[in-house]
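@channel sequence for tomorrow's demo:
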Amino acid sequence: MIFCINDFEGPLDLLLHLVKTAKMDIYEIDTKYIIDEYLKFIDTLDKQDIDNASEYLVMAAELIHLKSRLLLNLDDDGTDNSEYTINSEDDLKNKLIEYEKYKNITSVFKELEEKRKEVFTKIPENIKEYKSVKKGVQEEDADLLRKALEDLKKRVAYQKPINTKITKKEINVEDRTNYIRDILSKKKKVNFNDLFREYSKELIVATFLAILEMCKNGEVKLKQNGNFEDILIEKVIT
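structure tokens (generated this afternoon):
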């Protein structure tokens, strides 16, 4: 198989390929063999393609320098101030070991990148602008009314007199609606609990239905400034 420099990511990639092709342990490589194979490969490159081959030629110079030191049996005593970065077999092995670690990590990152491309993330949006406050009963309105009714039940239980008398006064939703409208025409907003001068099942139910219908028609909206705070009924100004 014929390789070209485009098959490799750089001279270290080529050296690592030669080690694996020779089925060598990277910690126990035959330095002279690897250098010879690298130089053979460089010799097959297009001599006119200097730009692409330049970094491979720089590594070739490093390896020739290393081979010369090995042939002359010169040990690296740490005093070599030359421009070469590879002055011993250990230098070459360490560079290859470090490169292999980075290459392995890179492959993991590439795999994670491919998996991430299969995931679509949507940035959270504020949906308040899509919600209509003029038409229909809002979910939060119904929830606030439910809480208000629960509070009223507790108050009725506490304020229930020992002796009660039955009255036949008829209470209807229309009357309660007009009553609430009359208050809101003066105050613009009213506390839910202030709608009751007395408590009775019929009055509470009629008031609840009246407020629910007014919310549905977009006449009023319910507000609560915080948890456990009083619920306010506010007139919607159109």
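heads up for whoever presents: The first helix runs from residue 11 to 21.
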